Amino acid sequence: MGCVNSKKATTTTLTTTIAKPKTPPHVIIQSHLDWTLKSISGSFRQIGNTGTLEKIEEKEEPEKDHDQETAVLVPQNEDSRHLSKPSLSSRWTSSFSITYGGRFAQAENVAAGWPPWLCDVAAETVMGWAPLKFDKFQKLEKIGQGTYSSVYRARDVETGKIVALKKVRFNNFRPDSVRFMAREIIILRRLDHPNIMKLEGIIASKFSCIIYLVFEYMDHDLAGLLSCPDIKFTEEQIKCFMRQLLCGIEHCHSQGVMHRDVKTANILVNNEGILKIADFGLANFTVTNNREPLTSRVVTLWYRPPELILGSTDYGEFVDLWSVGCVFAELFTGKPLLKGKTEGEQLHKIFKLCGTPPDEYWKRFKHPLPAMFKPRHHYECMLAQRCNEFPKTAVSLIESFLSYEPHMRGTASSALNSEYFSSIPYACDPSSLPKYPPNKEINAKLREDARRTKSYRMLITSGALRNQGRVRRPLLESTTWERKQEVEAYIYAVPRINGGCARPKGDRDSLKSSIDVVSEASQVGPVTEMSQVSSTHSVPFPAASSGFASERRRKQGSAPSRLDTKRTLKNQTASVLDPTSVLHAENNFSSNSQDSNINSRRVETTSRRSEENLKLVKPRERIRPHRYNSFNWSDFDSPEN
Ligand SMILES: Nc1ncnc2c1ncn2[C@@H]1O[C@H](COP(=O)(O)OP(=O)(O)OP(=O)(O)O)[C@@H](O)[C@H]1O
Known about the structure:
This is Serine/threonine-protein kinase. Helices cover about 40% and strands about 10% of the residues. With about 650 residues, it is α+β, with helices and mostly antiparallel strands. Strand 3 and strand 4 form a beta hairpin. The protein is globular and about 65 Å long. The N and C termini lie far apart (about 55 Å). Mean pLDDT is about 65; it is low at about 1-100 and about 475-640. Adenosine-5'-triphosphate binds near residues 164, 166 and 221.
């Protein structure tokens, strides 16, 4: 990696500090009119004031104290404005000038070998770094699959060091897509803590829309470990994981970053017992000037706090603490605490576990519709009963994490100072944790798929499905990850086989794709009476893909399936829309410019996937129209739910 050493500009003079580069500097700019630029590819001189570079002979420059170095940076656009927070971080530059400083940064990045599509849009992302070459690594097997990325184990061919390469897909022709990807990198560069995944480098393709993030390799994630029937953590081990998790979260929050996707699959552990928080793809800054509304469509459903499900667009780092509470309970039981299949069901599960929220709770929401989510029955808080086998101090910590009032959740620091950590048994030393065989979410999924495929095969053998014409043999023969997804999509499309959905990996997918599909469709879709009535409000109603209809159907006796989502998507594209979801999508799209990149970047993959999945559904099932215009608590308010 390279590092900017010094830079002067005459037009703009905002000064930020670049502290502690981990690698020697490569780029030196002397003045804005007469400057040289030194990168790994050589030294360059500007010809006149044209911005054209001329290669010059290498010249020795005295190394400066990096902690003292300054750079000229000014926000370039809305996105980078949100990214700039010099006051919160002394560690990394955080803005960018469109004047001389900007051109310097751009030229500097181009000279360092970064592709122009990245330098033009998000120069600050890679500033001071030089790109790594792809042939530096030998790609080994795939170890993770995310919504918009794939993760591979790889070996550094020179050093033999094992790393993780996260291949991120996006559209490099869409600046918002690039900026969204850039935010993850900027946040990762800002954070520096033993319990946060460290970004070691970036490989950027010159022309294609692919970037590889190079991370240190971690042997496990907590989702993988917890899915192993043989692994049961002791109290000391849980305390050890929780302490590390909270230390990492404390660091994020102290740097003004909220993770917004804390879940067991994003908590990695290595064989030395060190835990690191990964996946900052949805992370954002907590404090920004003139803050725009945030999107509520973040955090994987099972770990999502109620205020986000209810559509809050003004929230802070407290959302992470709810997720931490869910992870905490999962460490004890080995199972997710709140496994809703849809947003409505998730909310209902929360109410049943944490009790009905008080009346004041509903008043905070600006929109009238959350009130319709008020449960008809009063639920008492059942947390203590549900966690009766956990240590008392753990229960009270979980109770505070799972508070409806975000500020009652405390902070990561207060949790670290709680009685839970100061009481016996103390957290074990990370190095004393057992060394497990590599175990990740992907392994857990493959195990689950194998199990599901096996039971599917048994059904086929018994003739139960063949008679219904539902067998697609070739799909089941496949073992690759992509084919695996097709298998999964098909199996989900066959009702009553598995009795429901497994881990809602598709949650983010389906939500995001539905947002986009709906948003797209809303431009051509019919304006119904309801949409006209409610159009004065920005309605935080779950998108149609959250499938309240599926709950109704389940209640009526049929098993839920991903078909609901597919039908919904199909219906949406066919302009048969739930008006409230259109409004929600509009709300999130138009007003949440800060976060709209999330959708634009990720939806391309997901909507493609949705289309692929649709192909697997029989045409007769696809064209059946559905309308999801109402929500009724009676769908949930029964003892069996
Ligand atoms: N540094 C790493 N070392 C080992 N495995 C990793 C590493 N980073 C990620 N993984 C694996 O890859 C999986 C997906 O990674 P990550 O969460 O970063 O991708 P993502 O596309 O953002 O996923 P999602 O859409 O689920 O949030 C993780 O659950 C983990 O199992």
